Amino acid sequence: MPSSLPSTPAAAPRREPQFMRVAETQRAPLRFFLDGHEVTALQGDTLLTAVLMQQRRVRDSEFSGAPRAGFCLIGACQDCWMRTEDGRRLRACSTLVTEGMRVLTRFADASAGQGEAR
Ligand code: FES
């Protein structure tokens, strides 16, 4: 049965952001890839800011599977670890997002806790 709903493009899934930018909106834009979808950020954004401008989580808890969005925002709590598509670990709150960066919020690898850290 044909749908009467308007068609939607096959783009990134609709996400509800955790953060809303209210200042420094004139910085140069850049693009990065979040779970394979191209999104935008501004030069000088931390990875945590860039991701939470797109959605409400940066990863899932390795213990409960619950969504996590960082806690301290200053590199102390270890709640914001993400991975690049090539497997490197990044602390999102202390890593600047860069042009073309490719990061994942979900990873099945049980070896979380190993690898390169910043
Ligand atoms: S949010 Fe606490 S270490 Fe990144």
Give an overview of the whole structure:
This is NAD(FAD)-dependent dehydrogenase. With about 120 residues, the chain is mainly beta. The protein has a domain at about 40-105. Helix content is about 5%, strand content about 20%. The protein has 1 helix and 7 strands. A hairpin with a 4-residue loop joins β5 (about 80-85) and β6. The structure holds FE2/S2 (inorganic) cluster (FES). The site of FE2/S2 (inorganic) cluster (FES) has 12 residues, from loops.
Q: Which tags fit this structure?
A:
single chain, 118 residues, 5-stranded mixed sheet, disordered C terminus, binds FE2/S2 (inorganic) cluster, iron-sulfur cluster binding, oxidoreductase activity, 2Fe-2S-bd_N
Task: Give the H and E element order.
Answer: EEHEEEEE
Alpha-carbon Rg, integer:
15 Å
Coarse shape: globular
The largest β sheet comes out as: 5 strands, mixed
Indicate the low-confidence ranges by residue numbers: 1-10, 110-118
Look at the helices and sheets and give the structural class: mainly beta
Bound molecules: FE2/S2 (inorganic) cluster
Tally of helical runs:
1
Overall pLDDT metric: 85
Helix content: under 10%
Strand-residue fraction?
15-25%
Q: Termini distance?
A: 53 Å
Q: Which strands sit side by side, in order, in the main sheet?
A: 2-1-7-5-6
Protein name: NAD(FAD)-dependent dehydrogenase
Pfam families: Fer2_4
Organism: Paraburkholderia ginsengiterrae
Keywords: Oxidoreductase
